[in-house]
Amino acid sequence: MERKLKFTKANTAAVKGIAIIFLILYHGFSIKSRLYGYPVSFWPLSETTAMAICRVMVQCVGIFAFMSVYGLTLSMKAQYQDYEFTGHEATLFVLKRYVKLVLSFTIPFLFCMGVTYLTNTSRYSDGFSINLINAGMDFLGLSHLFGTQMQINTWWYLSLEILLIFFMPFLVRFYKRYGWLMVFMFLLVGSFMLEKHVHLTKYLFVAPLAVCFADQNVLERLKGFRIVKNRFLNKILKLILCTGILYVLCKMFNMKWGTDHFEFVLNGTIPVLIVYMSYEFVIEIPGIRQILEFIGKHSANIFYIHTFIRAVWCKDFTYSLGHVAVIWLFILLSSLAISVMLGFVQKLIHFDQFSAWITKRILGFADRNL
Fold first, then answer.
1. Closest by Cα among 46, 103, 48, 25 to 352
2. pTM, 2 dp
């Protein structure tokens, strides 16, 4: 009898580990200007081929968004039977997730702001009072939503995360009423009505997919599906089929024609396919699993910090290392080391207890007054 499959929190961390690896490769090597004039070797690949691969790795954004909505859906499913909740309950759910997001950003935000101040590398340039507002908007994750200046452009993703959090009650209610039809509605609206190439909207197709996948255990069902009875042959056939589909989708993504006409659907299907392939073929390999889970547990901090290392604080040293693999490894390990250090500081000052206390106070006030 085969064990019952379950996409666990450890699996989620491992997938996030893969996504953060993609993120560093995309930010570091996807276009020539990101090499800052340094002669970087991509051997054994050509520069053109390597950069084309790295450009596709922007799909890490969709992977992170998918995993966020996936987790939020499971939380709502556990908390509200049949997704039945009042407007008051939905407000508290959204507020709790938003407060949790901001508090998890607090320590890395203060670290990054402190280092930029000490190294005189701050990118705020509007005068003290406006810069204070800019910093506040960055801290609250609202800079990209309102168009205020950001300390680092990478932090735009916080605005997408907030959008997804606030969108969740409407999304699951719509799913409850229309099921998979919701996916096709999003596809039509997103493909023909939303403005193209906009960060906050072009990844939204992963949201309805994540809700359906989480509620109906689609990842587990796909992994348990057998094309043939032979286990090894089944795995090989699945790998060939998925790799072929992924190759075609990525080729389309790297074509101007493909993104002009199918950007919305590609930014939804490619991340979901990568998540499934990671679950099916990668994240349960002994050794690799543990490494990816460890990286994934630090993925948020690495996300917040890595661009400062490669583009602000240590730009010249980073790209003087010469080879893409060495540069990538330096960015990853240095970001990871800082994240581990921040985790130690967080424990030392009992920040988790403070976060729980302030969250309880905010939610209590909201519960009484909203």
1. 103
2. 0.95
